Amino acid sequence: MSENSLLKGKHIVFVAGEDEYNSEVSLAALALETGKLYGARTTVLASYPDPSNPSNIPQLDKLDEADLAVLYLRFRELPEEQLVHLLNYVESGKPVIAFRTSTHAFRYPAGHTRESLNAGFGIDVLGAPWIDHFGHSSSTDVSLAHGAENHPIVQDVPAFFHVRSWLYLTLPYPPEGAVILLNGSTVDPELTSESRVHASKVHPVAWTLTNRWGGNVFMTTLGHPEDFEHPAFRKLVTNSMLWALQTNKRE
């Protein structure tokens, strides 16, 4: 089946809600390209009035009719009337693609009824919580994970490439059953006493899994604005959308 036929007419909802990586710009460009090249119907949602507002992403009800959700979230505190649309989407078993800070998508205050999402969304939905990173001045060498060579998401993606994203510590995640596609090694890390022991290890930077609601997930801890300019990363993302829609069991 061709790329055009897989994406044509599908409704992909891109949700940008973070204030560190200009995801509202990167996702809007990705949505425009996906619509023009592949005929997908795209909707881009973003924090309002600007990315620094953690408690307002209007029109999340668009997820109710989405075939695929693409998330780039960080430390949101969404009101229940907005949050419920995202949770209903996830719990429906539809596919999810998520970038970088989405492992720590929420930061509700202690005692809040949704406090469990602070770590639970990353673990239960995406396969990893926020742990730590190797510093903003560092970058990452990316390599194909052993045994992943034939996975459709990494087809035509180089076996080795370099990105601007500083490496996230992910071990011991993702969980058993996840398929690790790419690993990362930190380059010129800013070491602390806590991170020094982990600096020589490779950490998963892209994987797939089936979450507890039966939804297929592609998660990558990459996603610096410069990554979206890298041909290898762009191919990875396009492949992930094709994979997510092709494997969607809830159509």
List keywords for this structure.
251 residues, Rossmann fold, two-stranded antiparallel sheet, 24% helix
Kindly describe this structure.
It contains 5 helices and 11 strands, in the order H-E-H-E-E-H-E-H-E-E-E-E-E-E-E-H. With 251 residues, the protein is α/β, with parallel strands linked by helices. It has a domain at 3-130 and 205-246: 3-Layer(aba) Sandwich (Rossmann fold). It has a 9-stranded mixed β-sheet, covered by helices on one side. A two-stranded antiparallel sheet has the order 5-8. The two termini are 17 Å apart. The model has no long low-confidence stretch (mean pLDDT 94).
**What's the CATH class of the domain at 3-130 and 205-246, please?**
Alpha Beta
Please indicate the percent range of residues in DSSP E strands (runs of 2 or more). Answer: 15-25%
Mean pLDDT: 94
Relative helix content:
10-25%
CATH superfamily annotation of the domain at 3-130 and 205-246: Class I glutamine amidotransferase (GATase) domain
Q: What is the level-2 CATH architecture name of the domain at 3-130 and 205-246?
A: 3-Layer(aba) Sandwich
Tell me the distance between the termini: 17 Å
Low-confidence stretches: none
Helix- and strand-based class?
alpha/beta
Strand order of the largest sheet: 2-1-3-4-11-10-9-6-7
CATH topology of the domain at 3-130 and 205-246: Rossmann fold
Shape: globular
Individual helix count: 5
Could you tell me the radius of gyration in angstroms? Answer: 17 Å
User: Strand-and-helix sequence, N→C?
Assistant: HEHEEHEHEEEEEEEH
Main beta-sheet annotation: 9 strands, mixed
- Please provide the count of β strands: 11
